[in-house]
Structures are given as structure tokens and as C-alpha cells.
Design brief:
This protein is mainly α. Helix content is about 60%, strand content about 0%.
């Protein structure tokens, strides 16, 4: 019988040894983000029936590669998982190989479909497509990665990113049929197709994020 919660000793290990590493990453890949990916993953586990400890661990490790170059963070994350000998306490070599590949396959811009259902789950869980989350994370990343840009330049970057990734011709793909992300992606595209509304959303989150830490 499949369990509906991860093993307690695995959870303790992940929460004390793995998740704290996210505190050093940018706001778009923070503890809040990985916690949300884990929550989304556990929800998808219930509908797909996969092994919960594997899915939970994949979600926890999926962005650890943000400690290095962002462009290859998914590959770095896979290497970190595969080289963590502590995981042998819970998983076989074959399971670790599957988990490594799933982490490598989670990136939205990947040129191929995830190689397993585990890769599809973490890819889907990573796509929190509620418009508020997408807009805020995009602004946060822009401010962190390109602090030299003007507000107008940040808007142009924001707009181009929305078009290339989330629009009807964007590269994002959903891998789990009838997942909650389908409705969220439609909402997002409705806003992207309305330039005035999209600019209003950018202005809102840009103002909020640049106001953080300013004296009152």
C-alpha cells in the first residue's frame, strides 16, 4: 500500500540539511519557492501514485544548482543529488539515477520531454503559474540579476520574458493532463494578451519589490 506522507527520518534530513541551502539563493528561488514546489509535488503524487519519498526528494533538490551558474542549474542540481551519498540510506542506485534525471529534466526551457513520470511531476510542480506568483518572481529575478537596469528596461525584460515563456507560442509545456496549472496558464495568457493590463501588473510588483527595505 502506498504511503501518503514521506518517511519521517527522510523529512528530518531534508528539512535540516537540504532546504536551509535555499536561504542563500535569490528571492525567485528561495525557501518559499522550494516549499511551494514540494507542496505541489505531494499533491501530484496523490493523483499519479508514484513513490512519495522519491518525488519529495526530487522536489527538495531540484534547485540546489542555483549555487552555481543559473543556465545550467538543473544539471548541477542533478549532480548534487547523485553525489550525495547520504541518500543511499533511503534509495537504491537505480532510484537515485531516476531522481537525478528528473531533476535535470525539470527546467521549463528543456529541449526534450522529461524522461520519467518523476521528471514530469517536478517540472509541473515547479510551474506555479498563478499570475501573481509568476509576475512577482519575474520582477524579483530581474532586480537580483540585473540591478543596473532602469525601470523601463526592467519592464522591457519582463514583457519579453512573458512573451517567450508563457504566451501561446512560448516554450513552457505542461506535462500532467488536467493539472491545476492548465487553468492558471490560461489566466496568465489572458493578461499577457492585454498589454495595458500586463503593464499594470508589472508596475504593481516592481513598486512593491523596490520599496522593500526603504525607510518609511
Amino acid at each position: 500500500m502506498l504511503r501518503n506522507t514521506p518517511s519521517l527520518d527522510l523529512v528530518e534530513f531534508i528539512e535540516t540539511q537540504i532546504l536551509p541551502q535555499y536561504a542563500s539563493f535569490d528571492k525567485a528561488h528561495s525557501m518559499e519557492h522550494v516549499t511551494r514546489v514540494i507542496r505541489n509535488t505531494l499533491e501530484l503524487v496523490r493523483t499519479t501514485g508514484v513513490e512519495i519519498d522519491m518525488a519529495y526528494t526530487i522536489a527538495a533538490y531540484h534547485d540546489l544548482g542555483m549555487s552555481g551558474p543559473r543556465a545550467i542549474h538543473h544539471l548541477t542540481s542533478g549532480k548534487i543529488l547523485a553525489s550525495d551519498a547520504r541518500l543511499k540510506r533511503w534509495f537504491s542506485s537505480e532510484q537515485i539515477k531516476i531522481m537525478k534525471e528528473a531533476v535535470e529534466d525539470h527546467r521549463a526551457s528543456a529541449s526534450h520531454a522529461p524522461r520519467s513520470i518523476y521528471g514530469k511531476i517536478v517540472a509541473e510542480a515547479d510551474r506555479d503559474l498563478s499570475p501573481d506568483t509568476v509576475f512577482r518572481r519575474t520582477v524579483q529575478f530581474g532586480l537580483s540579476a540585473y540591478p543596473q537596469l532602469t525601470a523601463e528596461q526592467h519592464w522591457q525584460r519582463f514583457k519579453e520574458h512573458m512573451d517567450s515563456k508563457y504566451s501561446e507560442h512560448g516554450y513552457i509545456k505542461l506535462w500532467i493532463p488536467n493539472s491545476p496549472n492548465a487553468d492558471k496558464l490560461k489566466q496568465l495568457r489572458d493578461i499577457i494578451n492585454n498589454q495595458q493590463l500586463l503593464k499594470e501588473q508589472f508596475d504593481k510588483y516592481y513598486s512593491e519589490e523596490t520599496a522593500v527595505g526603504e525607510p518609511s
